[in-house]
Design goal:
Length: about 130
């Protein structure tokens, strides 16, 4: 994942290390509940989308929750309608969509202030040694 996400300097960047940890946790969570390959890919896209909303677009918790709601609204619908910015997630069951929402609430939204600080807090990063 480190190479795929192009995260360099993990030993000296706490922010990048935390991001790698979050992506890894999400990946293994999705594998544990036996997502198919396409579901795993869709979940990781959604995870990236939610994180980009926070890091790049500076979305508030409420706005990011609305984006998650829009993204999972396609679950259980047939394709052919206009897809949202995130794309159709109709390859998930309703139960899987509920599990995904629970994952984001427990892992990200519950700690949203901490992640906001990670992305947008003051930049007084201390250099950590490899030791």
């Amino acid at each position: 994942l480190e190479e795929y996400l192009n995260l360099t300097q993990l030993k000296t960047s706490l922010k990048k290390d935390i991001l790698l940890d979050y992506y890894t946790a999400g990946f293994f969570w999705a594998k544990e509940i036996n997502f198919s390959l396409i579901q795993l890919s869709g979940f990781m896209d959604l995870l990236n989308f939610i994180l980009e909303n926070l890091s790049d677009k500076h979305m508030t918790l409420g706005d990011n929750l609305k984006e998650l709601e829009r993204a999972v609204a396609t679950v259980g619908e047939s394709s052919g309608e206009d897809s949202e910015q995130m794309g159709d997630l109709n390859f998930f069951s309703i139960e899987q969509a509920k599990a995904i929402i629970d994952f984001f609430f427990i892992s990200l939204f519950k700690h949203y202030k901490a992640y906001e600080y990670l992305f947008h807090g003051p930049r007084e990063e201390l250099l950590l040694s490899e030791e």
